[in-house]
Amino acid sequence: MTDITMTLPLRVARTIREHGLFAPGDTVIVALSGGADSTALLDLLSRLPGCAPRLVAAHLNHCLRGPESDRDEEFVRTLAARYRIPLECRRVDVNTYAQTERLNLEDAGRQARIAFLDELRHSWQAAAVALAHHADDQAETVLMRLLRGAGPGGLSGMSYRNGRSFIRPLLEFSRDELVAYLTARGLTWHEDASNLDTTFLRNRIRHELLPLLESYNPAIRERLAATAAVLSDEHAFLDRLAHQVVDQSCTQDGGTLACHLPTVAGQPPALRRRVFRLLLERLAGNLKHFSNRHIAALEHLLESSRPNAALNLPQGIAAVREYDTLLVRRTTEPPSPPAEAELEITDVGHYRLPGGAHLTLTLVAAPAAVEPLPAATALFDPDRAPFPWHVRMFRPGDRLAPYGMAGNKKVKELFINAKVPPSRRCIIPLLFSGDTLLWVCGLRTSRLASLDGTSTRAIRAVFSET
Questions:
Q1: What proportion of the chain, given as a percentage, has pLDDT over 90?
Q2: 390 in a domain, yes or no?
Q3: Among 309, 330, 351, which residue terminates a domain?
Q4: What's the pLDDT band for 197 if we cut at 50, 70, 90?
């Protein structure tokens, strides 16, 4: 009969090598609760053939079970002393933390552990933080996420390594194997009574749902773990494609991501949904509170017949459709429209306009023939548009007598026809002589101050947004 005390360390070492979890001699923080799983993890990492790391034990006392929590901490101290490794302990009143942050106990405990382990990884300059999650935990995680309506990413389960350098060397081993290993090694552990409390969803899945599913398929735990592994590979592949789409079609300026809408809309639905999640994660830092309902709302925004539409999302994120551009931005950092102050212009010269743009006015001889000019340049007859001039921003009701057209036109209609997004309309300067609108800068000039055959001089106006 094969000796599990010899074979299991070899299998764990192979997992570590295959997934590149750490290298020999690296510092690894071991999350140690004192339960069977973490006790097995510590012993296995201390006996790795050919890739022994430098171990540091870490224990967080959640202060939830009174003297029992304190006994767990004392047991962990004994373990660390037995293995002759450093131990970092911390006490956090998770119940108080949950009430303060308005979290349930599971989420509060998880956040406290992550913060503690992250801090230790940096202070010890560790290559990784080792967690004792195993194949049974993976099966429970997949079911829990399925019940909550997760997509393929969530159903891919826990990874061998995440973005925080948290690693799971035991992910392919069952809890029965770990208990058998501890028993064969003559090692003891502490059972956490809270693991029997079925008020927690994970415990209900462990003690009620999984046993029921085993009556349909005795190998349900292995099947769920295998399904998670397949989905994990496919999730990673599609995620790389989503990153390529975002890198090619989106640019970021502070708290705003601007994406070429036709490119995003042209992706297959499965990839488009991942692009949305990636955009949200880049701005919010996580996907907390974002659900499939919000992804579907973004889909509807892309398909909307309205050229300008907006959508409010969790975590202070908003999505705005502006013609062929999709803006996803933090509403806590909205674009700041310039102040309503007007700038008076009494003569030619260089002027800094409200909002930070620049206008340069130069007196020149009237050209014999007026040729097409760049959009940022205009010519005006100073005899038909006397100083003082003034500059202000757009107001509802503003009208222009466009050059080359009869009658007047609302400036708003000019913006719409030119597909100027609503967010930009408030930052385009308008140039006036008295009450006459001369120029919607960079867009359209008025015929009321244009040059004609009687003009002898002209004012050349050059507009720059920088």
A1: 64
A2: yes
A3: 330
A4: confident
Nearest CA to 445 among 457, 424, 459, 466? 459
Give the whole-angstrom CA distance, residue 116 versus residue 192: 20
How high is the pLDDT of residue 1?
Answer: 44
- Residue 32: give the domain boundaries: 4-228
For residue range 284-306, what is the model confidence (pLDDT) as tens digits?
888 888 888 899 999 988 888 77
Task: Give DSSP secondary structure letters for 53-115.
Answer: -EEEEEEEE---STHHHHHHHHHHHHHHHHHT--EEEEE--HHHHHHHHT--HHHHHHHHHHH
The pTM (predicted TM-score) of the whole model is 0.67
- CA gap 401, 408 in Å, rounded: 4
pLDDT at 336: 47
Pick 38 or 1 by higher pLDDT: 38
In whole angstroms, what is the distance from residue 223 CA to residue 452 CA? 83
When pLDDT is averaged across residues 140-164 and rounded to a whole number, the result is 89
CA distance 115 to 102: 17
* DSSP-assigned beta bridge partners for residue 361: 349, 461
Phi-psi region of 462 (alpha: psi -120 to 50; beta: other; left: phi over 0): beta
**306 to 88, 295, 300, 302, 321: CA distances (angstroms):** 57, 19, 11, 9, 9
Q: How many domains does the chain have?
A: 3
Phi-psi region of 20 (alpha: psi -120 to 50; beta: other; left: phi over 0): left
Q: At what angle do helices 105-123 and 94-101 cross, to 10 degrees?
A: 110
Would you state the pLDDT for residue 158? 93
Cα–Cα dist 307/323, whole Å: 5
Q: Do strands 457-464 and 358-365 pair parallel, antiparallel, or not at all (unpaired)?
A: antiparallel
